[in-house]
Amino acid sequence: MNIILGITGGIAAYKTPHLVRLLVKKGHNVKVILTESAKEFVTPLTLATVSKNEVISSFKTTDNNWNNHVELALWADLLLIAPATANTLAKMANGLCDNVLLATYFSAKAPTFIAPAMDLDMYAHPTVNNNLDRLKSFGNQIIPAAYGELASGLVGQGRMAEPEDIINFIETNISHNLPLKGKKILITAGPTYEAIDPVRFIGNFSTGKMGIALANEAVKQGAEVHLILGPSAETNIHNKIHLQRVISASDMYEATVNQFKTSDIAILSAAVADYTPKIKAPEKIKKKETSLNLELVSTIDILASLGKQKQQQLLIGFALETENESENARIKLNKKNLDAIVLNSLKDKGAGFGTNTNKITFITQNKETSFPLKDKTEVAKDILNEILKLK
To answer: For CTP, which residues are the binding ones (predicted)?
Structure first.
């Protein structure tokens, strides 16, 4: 998840390097926006070191360019302001915008979490409470201040919540609202290798990038994901994914059928071999002749098999075509009893195997929705959004 952490000028800012470390450890990409007054309590160098990203504190960059607050806001999946002082709360509640953090906040469409921090009398003041209520009415999530000893020496409510509690609050809140919460999704990805002998195989150029992107995004949206992955060198796989590696089409068939029975959604993006050698030589075949004849037989059609077994599950297939793309994809959709099929064409530059981008058309019985060329992480979001519309 892409997280912007906005830090304002309160003593609780000293806790933020630990907060950043915890977020990064959980696999999030964190960019820090530091107000000028916050620099009195924590240094940009410290935050840049723990976040592994340059800290933003003004509209102007170190090389005399500018920090585009609109791009920052669009980049973020979540905006966290911690600590949020009474001054910053008042500005947020009343539309005042005098720094890059506030400009980013007012541009953001992502969920915003606010962790206020101030002395107890300030926290209890009617204007602060009114501002917090107003911010809640805008859809912001307020992480309540904690009770304890304050910088003034007084004891009461006003301490910024501890970093661990902030993260727990966010994760609990998000998990209840994730679109795929409670769903089990089965995804196949990558190629299959069909052995000729112990050292040679029939394969294809699939890398599994698209299927892995789907699996990663489905986990982020709250699903329990089982990824059945053919031979692939890709390592960017979320640690919450249940990963099962397979080699051949028969391996993938067996693993897929076993998981399909308990799945809510199955997305079969793997490039499964259509044929396999009828006889697999037990020893390496020596080069004796100028040619070698191999007899090939059909592999099991996994997608068609699941289409026959399908009950309540949604079944989504993939079609990589080179001619009559839409027509061939629709034939596959109907023949294999699919709920939808994702079409991509090798004629489209930037689509297909081995690239970080893809260009797809999402096809159902009644509709075709085409998308422009995008990064596969964004394509995964588009596909899952379309699948959610099917239920």
So the answer is: 274, 284, 318, 332, 336
